[in-house]
Amino acid sequence: MTEVLIVGAGPAGLLLAGELRLAGVDTVVVERHSRRPDFCRGFNLNARALDLLARRGLAERLVAEGRQVPHVAFSGLPVTLNLAGAHTDHPYTLGIPQTRVEEVLEEHARELGADIRRGHELRSLEQDSASVTAAVTVGGGAGDDAGNGPAEYRIQAAYVVGCDGGRSTVRKQAGIDFPGTEATRFSLLGDVELADPQALPFGVTTGPGGAVFVIPRPGYVRIITADRRPPADRTTPVTLDLLQAAVADAVGRRVELRAARWLTRFGNAARQAAEYVRGRIVLAGDAAHIHPPAGAIGVNIALDDAFNLGWKLAATVRGTAPAHLLDSYHDERHPAGARVLANTRAQVLLGDVENRLGPLTDLLTRVASHPAGNRAFAETVTGLDTRYETPPAGTHPGADHAWLGRLVPDLALVTGSGRRCLTEFSTRGRGLLLDLTGAKAETKAEAGSGAGSGAAEGALRDSAAGWADRVDVVSADCPDHPGLRAVLLRPDGHAAWLRTADHDHDDGLHQALEHWFGPAGKPGQDAR
């Protein structure tokens, strides 16, 4: 028996495991592959993903290893989308292998006590009103020489989360519809070596039969080109000869390829699960949505899903969540997923080699050439414009503030223990009430991070006393934003309530606390 069973140890599953363990939730992760693949699917983290990871102290080590590029790609437009001035603490795309991101997330989850079982494959699920029972096989394969099948066991969980990719077994077992559009075009991808490094330059090379996109990687190149004659069975393995023939067809000459590391085929299908939550079964990452790879957004939206889900599922398991909280995961992330499907499909259309949308491309290029339009494009395709509804928004003094519902920047704060950053108080994965009315006494959150001890006095602390087991109060000054008096942050860093200098009351604070953190407990109670 476990509280949460996660199926899939990709970026979404591993980050979610860490989030649940921060809240003390018993978590088991099963992954059918016995080890991480030798190849790497993705090579970047966008600004939004880095901002989220920074809330748990996970971004810094990745940033130290990766390559910063101050813009984001939008296929089909000849204009670079710059991130300077965007609503982010990380105004760049970070070039770093997905495999390395997974290593960091797995290390984090294991350190927190997650039980990660590789070589364990989900076979079936049975859900009732109280729990979900999963049948899991160990080792895979056809069994031993004596005719025995692979070992199987059953595990019962309060909730199961499918983070098991586009062909999700969890989604299928739950009977959740996956509507969308079938693939109409396919491409071949190969991580290979060029026998002659000068045979194909980096970037796009066009020829009589199409185009070839070449991306440099350490010791090899990634080649992408159209699969103009895909087999009836799209799962038919891609061979080096097939990729070489497709490249020759595109550029009109033979280019010798060798030493294939990874060969695959992908299409432009776009699908999204009709429900992200069905009873005690939840979906995240590619299990919830698949889309064309334009913009390289896949890993990033998977992390976004997991970060939104973790604290909500943990509170639900712990019994402190309001009734609507887990459903709010679907309410917030389903529209976000739909936006990703829309913008990636748009990039595919704009990148059409036949240029059938030339006038639209010209129009969007002019918009993207304007600084405000360029920034808007960049924030849209990276999810930096994400804003979640914050009921009861119209009943409190900061209801019209630009930050409400958005990820709050990593504010520079002055506390009783000195200068601190807001993200330093976010690593526990709890709610946070930031009191900026001027008191600088040490806080419980600071004590928990080793900064000292003490207690801040004031009305805000008294107002939040009933949520002390779920919400930390930090008292500080914020010199860069003198007009801000208080902010209530959800565990994912999004602002749920604000008060500015134009108001001298805390109307709506209790409603916001109850909406996101459930009923108040006894003042001073702390389950931690």
General form = globular
Overall mean pLDDT score? 90
The CATH architecture of the largest domain would be 3-Layer(bba) Sandwich
Sheet with the most strands, sense and barrel status: 8 strands, mixed
CATH superfamily of the largest domain: FAD/NAD(P)-binding domain
What's the tally of helices? Answer: 13
**Uncertain residue ranges:** 440-457, 523-528
| First and last CA, distance | 23 Å
Question: Multimeric state of these chains?
Answer: single chain
- The CATH topology label of the largest domain is FAD/NAD(P)-binding domain
Number of E strands: 27
Class from secondary-structure proportions: alpha+beta
Number of domains: 3
Identify the CATH class of the largest domain: Alpha Beta
Summarize the structure.
By secondary structure, the protein is of the alpha+beta class. The chain has helices at residues 11-22, 47-54, 59-65, 98-111, 169-174, 240-251, 298-318, 325-350, 358-369, 371-382, 444-448, 459-463, 509-517, and strands at residues 2-7, 27-31, 44-45, 67-69, 71-72, 81-82, 93-95, 115-118, 120-127, 132-138, 151-162, 180-181, 186-194, 203-207, 210-217, 220-226, 257-267, 270-272, 277-278, 281-283, 289-290, 412-415, 418-421, 431-435, 471-475, 484-489, 495-500.
Which terms summarize this structure?
528 residues; alpha+beta; FAD/NAD(P)-binding domain; Glutaredoxin; 3 domains; 8-stranded mixed β-sheet; globular; disordered C terminus
Can you describe what's shown?
This protein is α+β, with helices and mostly antiparallel strands and 528 residues long. It folds into three domains: 206 residues, FAD/NAD(P)-binding domain, CATH 3.50.50.60; 81 residues, Alpha-Beta Plaits (2-Layer Sandwich), CATH 3.30.70.2450; 125 residues, Glutaredoxin (3-Layer(aba) Sandwich). The chain is 28% helix and 26% strand. It contains 13 helices and 27 strands. The strands form seven sheets. Strands 1, 2, 8, 9, 10, 11, 19 and 20 form an eight-stranded mixed beta sheet that branches. The protein has a five-stranded antiparallel beta sheet with strand order 14-15-16-13-17, covered by helices on one side. The longest helix has 26 residues. The protein is globular, with a radius of gyration of 25 Å.
